[in-house]
Amino acid sequence: MNRVILQLVAVGICFAIGQALECYKCKIGIGELCITSKTTCPSGEHCFSGEGKAAGFVDIKMKGCLAEAKCNKTEEVNFSISGNTTVYSMTKTCCNTDLCNTAPGLPGTPGLILAVSAVSALLVANFY
After folding, report:
1. Distance CA 127, CA 6 (A)
2. What is the DSSP letter of 34?
3. Can you tell me the distance from the alpha carbon of 70 to that of 78, in angstroms, rounded to the nearest whole number?
């Protein structure tokens, strides 16, 4: 009997883990650069992508997990560096499938990878 209960608990844990939402996370990005990692959202949160403008011309980006009640809204954000405070508005758009807040690559990344690979291959070939 205990074995059956233990198996049911194990199956329940697998379903609970399977329903956790995985999202890209970027605390703050400027322009097209937003260095991301992957994160698992707590229950009741969705993936979001946030876009805003600081000082009227600097694009600010964020990604991560957000409570459903805060989704698809624009809010004012105070950002302070060295005592200087900048206020900007951030619009956070949510989605609810794994990795739906897509992580953009760095501009020119495929070309850069190809160039680094070619140079590395040439250097290795010259040593042998």
Report:
1. 59
2. -
3. 17
Spell out the residues 6+ positions from residue 87 whose beta carbon is closer than 8 angstroms to its own.
76, 77, 78, 79
% of the chain at pLDDT higher than 90? 38
- Is 99 part of any domain? yes
Q: Are 110 and 74 in contact (CB under 8 A)?
A: no
CB of 127 within 8 A of CB of 73? Answer: no
Say which CATH number the domain at 89 has: 2.10.60.10
**Alpha helix ranges (H) inside the chain:** 2-18, 109-127
64 vs 87: CA distance, rounded Å: 21
Residue with tokens 């290795």: 124
Residue 82: left if φ>0, alpha if ψ -120 to 50, beta else—which one?
left
Decide if 16 is inside a domain. no
* Per-chain mean pLDDT for the chain: 76
| 75 compared with 79, residue with greater pLDDT | 75
Domain region containing 91: 22-106
DSSP 64-77: EEEEGGGTTEEEEE
